[in-house]
Amino acid sequence: MDQKKSIFAKEPWWKRRSKLEKKLVLSLLGIVIAFIIFIALVCVKYVIPERPCHSSHCLLAASQVIGSIDTTVDPCDDFFTFACGKFIEQIHGDIEATSIKALEEKVARQVAELIKEPIKEDDHPFVKIQKQLFQNCMNETEEEQENALNIFNETIRELQGWPVVEGFEWDEQLFDWKRAIYQLRRKGLPYAIFFDVQVMPCLVNKTRNAVYLSEPFVIRVEEEHKESYKRYMVEAAVAMGAEEKLAIVELEKVFDLIDRVHKIVKENDRPNNYTMADVKRELLKERYTIDEYQKRHEALDWLSFINGILKPAGKLTKSDYVYFPTEKFVESLLSLLDKTPRRIQANYIMWNVLDSTITYLNKKLQQIENNYLCVADRSLQSNDRYKFCKRVINRTFRPSPVYINYARKYLPVEKRNKVKEMLTNIKGEFTELLKQSSWLDAESKEKALEKAQSMTGVIGTPGDYFNDDIYDTFKMEPKFAEDVTESNFFEIMLQNARHQVDLSFARIHKPNDDAYNDIVYHRAVATVNAMYSPSDNAMVLPVAILQGIFYDQDRPQYLNYGALGSIIGHEITHGFCKDASTFDKDGNEVESVWSNATAEAFERQIQCIIQDAEDFDVEDTEATINGTLTLEENIADYTGVKVAYAAYKNWVRVHGEEPQLTGVGYTPYQLFWVSSISHECYQLSGKSLEQSLKRDSHALNVYRATAPIRNSAEFAKDFNCPLNSKMNPPDKCQIF
């Protein structure tokens, strides 16, 4: 029996398999096990939600979201009120209480802490000089202010005096407005009274510099403030020694001249819808050699006038090219000056000089200015000595040493690298959009992709700001360090102003200096904003915007990509709209990087966005958004949030899903959209609303917040918005 059993019993299943079958079974088993492990990992990383984030940074973010959103509102019906409703209600419509204003005030405090610090032994020499100068300004005595007034009066006497003060002893035969302008320039005083003169990169060759003449800045006095301004003029002149009756008569004529010059400047303002290409074409029309221009406009000796201002730092010949203002402006202004008596010319010039420097002078004059500003614009009052000193000191240095220290303290290398990663990710997504854009033909798309590849990002401030070599870009008069401790504050300011203009004018005929141009970016360090420079093909993220509601490296990235990421995408997009289509990948001005076919296709593509803006219903007014005026910004808004969202989804694929915020009850993707409009949470009304609709190239904030989202399929999916709901219309506008 036992033997029979052994004969008829089957061999085990495994032994009956051939070698090939065994190999196949083992391979299949390995695949199944690997698949199970993979699914488990995916579940852990992507499916199984992590517990909410309880860090202090997350708790702060959660409280901000809870304090902003109005959960009684359906986000598919009115996303702006849903995301901002509670916050707007809490600030009671106060435009000064917005999150951006709060961040600007925070930045101001941060800068104040640095500039008020005592001078340290290990401070860089430039930092020591700036701190010393700040202390001099803050501690300026009444005696020193009187000395400043004496310096001012002596300067005015050298300019043949101020007629309204000297009365009938003033000799008009000794006065020439051009000579007065030359002397003001060399004294370090404001000289752009009738024409401004600047040295900037040449439009036709970016590697060289050129001289530009342009219209001056002329104060625009609102109708309701005109009498107050006239009273300010008279009181200031009387304080300088004028007789009141004479001052009333003569300064009325000066005010009339101010009004006339302002109208001439205004008539030559470029339209709000002018693109950079339009501006370039207009400037190129007015590019002449001095000799050519002299033959067209003989009323002024242009070579003598320009060199009189440039002297002693630069000099032109009659064969040099200069960019002039429009012919209409030049003809109108010179005709007006020809008809204006010398006495009024002199009073006008001296008033401009006093108005620009009055804050440096004695208490009596400062109070006269403050009395006017109290009526016209409280934000410009100089009662706050710190604000005045900070503003003056920052103008004195190019760049400001305190801004280098600010970058070092508030943008450590690790934080900068994380922002750089975000910028790179978003630029990558934008590049993908360019590749998919059907309205770009092959030639234009190739140039656009080259431009995207070449675009640089200035994060915080240019260069290695932790290396003291960065101070080599500073230019300062050799005696300045000595003067800081020995000279009158006002005198130091005049000396430095003169020196800075000399540095600028000395760049004529020299190659364009990138380090000098970087000063623009250094000066933006403490600005809560971002920008794109077409002439550098660079987007700039100042240190100040890399904090607060826009960025916190320790909070979830969906909030950072929503807030800061959308802004990064916005600025990148500016490099590829019509305005920037006349700049190539290196920032050189060209006719256009678009073919005619692409330009025509773009015009067709934008009609949807223009119409969408103009169809938007603005509450509390019959006025509408100007779709053409706001077009470039609207395109950047639409595209910015789109590429930021795509970049965040890619970030998640690499790093995994992030935890939710405690007590908020919304998914990370939903909070991305909430975060993307957090800086738009305010409400305009009355005059502010009217001015925004009439003049601002940015659309109304409610439209900016909702239009890109309303035209996003991803938003509708994340909030499960039904088709045909207000935030999920069936027809959506897209550019890229």
If you had to describe this structure to a student in words, what would you say it looks like?
- This protein has helices at residues 2-8, 19-47, 56-66, 79-91, 99-115, 125-138, 142-158, 163-166, 177-187, 226-239, 244-267, 276-285, 290-296, 302-310, 327-339, 342-357, 363-376, 385-396, 401-410, 413-436, 442-454, 480-486, 489-505, 514-523, 557-574, 596-615, 631-655, 668-676, 686-695, 701-710, 713-718, and strands at residues 196-201, 209-214, 287-289, 321-323, 456-460, 531-533, 538-542.
- It is mainly α and 736 residues long.
- The chain has three domains: 14-48; 97-109 and 399-585 and 596-719, Collagenase (Catalytic Domain); 137-382, Orthogonal Bundle (Neutral endopeptidase, domain 2), CATH 1.10.1380.10.
- Strands 1-2-4-3 form a four-stranded mixed beta sheet. Strands 5-7-6 form a three-stranded mixed beta sheet, covered by helices on one side.
- A hairpin with a 4-residue loop joins strand 6 and strand 7.
- The longest helix has 29 residues, at 19-47.
- The radius of gyration is 32 Å and the shape is globular.
- The chain starts with a helix and ends in an 18-residue tail after the last helix.
- 37% of the residues are buried.
Output the keywords:
single chain; 736 residues; mainly alpha; Collagenase (Catalytic Domain); Neutral endopeptidase, domain 2; 3 domains; 4-stranded mixed sheet; 3-stranded mixed sheet; 31 helices; disordered N terminus; transmembrane
> Could you say which overall geometry the principal axes of the C-alpha atoms support?
globular
Arithmetic mean pLDDT: 87
- Residues in helices, as a percent range: 55-70%
The CATH architecture of the largest domain can be given as 3-Layer(aba) Sandwich
Under CATH, the homologous superfamily of the largest domain reads Collagenase (Catalytic Domain)
Query: Under the CATH scheme, which class of the largest domain?
Result: Alpha Beta
Q: Strand count, sense and closure of the main sheet?
A: 4 strands, mixed
- The helix count comes to 31
Biggest sheet strand order reads: 1-2-4-3
- Beta content: under 5%
Distance between the termini: 85 Å
Task: Outline the low-pLDDT stretches.
Answer: 1-10, 40-49
InterPro entries: MetalloPept_cat_dom_sf, Peptidase_M13, Peptidase_M13_C, Peptidase_M13_dom_2, Peptidase_M13_N
Subcellular location: Cell membrane
Keywords: Hydrolase, Membrane, Metal-binding, Metalloprotease, Protease, Transmembrane, Transmembrane helix, Zinc
GO molecular function: metal ion binding; metalloendopeptidase activity
